[in-house]
Design goal:
about 150 residues; alpha+beta; OB fold (Dihydrolipoamide Acetyltransferase, E2P); 3 domains; four-stranded antiparallel sheet; about 25% helix; elongated
Length: about 150
């Protein structure tokens, strides 16, 4: 299967409500499973008595207010988010110099990091020009789709 087609399929699964996709072609078979159990956790809650689901929404709003104080820090810069699930690498070689660090000036198209997904190294580029204000993940850390990686001023 063509790598571009595979990446497109991964992106489609990541951005949709589909939990799993399996495709069989002449060249072989591909199975893409979205990580995270939110889809599966919702199903058992619906089969519980009415008192169970009522307790869950009450807990959710209580969890939201602590997240709001972090929100004001985000608008001061542009968040660079992970376009896929994978492993974050700050440099192109183990132990090598990171592509960017706090204080590094970047232009549109400059390499910021690499995200490894399914043994494919994907270079993530800056979509805006500015200065790296914050690196939000550690080298070798697993990242999720849409997870903030950098803040650029």
């Amino acid at each position: 299967m063509d790598l571009r087609k595979l990446k497109t399929l991964i992106d489609l699964v990541s951005e949709s409500n589909i939990a799993e996709l399996e495709i069989t072609e002449n060249e072989g078979k591909v199975r893409i499973v979205k990580s995270g159990g939110a889809t599966y956790a919702a199903a058992p809650m619906m089969t519980m008595p009415a008192a169970g689901p009522m307790a869950a929404p009450a807990a959710a709003p209580a969890a939201l207010p602590p997240a709001e104080p972090a929100a004001p820090a985000e608008p001061t810069g542009t968040l660079v988010k992970s376009p896929m699930v994978g492993t974050f690498y700050a440099s192109s070689t183990p132990g090598g110099k990171p592509f960017v660090e706090v204080g590094t000036a970047v232009k549109v198209g400059d390499a910021l990091c690499i995200i490894e997904a399914m043994k494919i190294m994907n270079e993530i580029e800056a979509e805006v020009a500015g200065t790296i204000r914050e690196v939000l993940v550690e080298n070798g850390q697993a990242v999720e789709f849409g997870q903030p990686l950098f803040v650029i001023d």
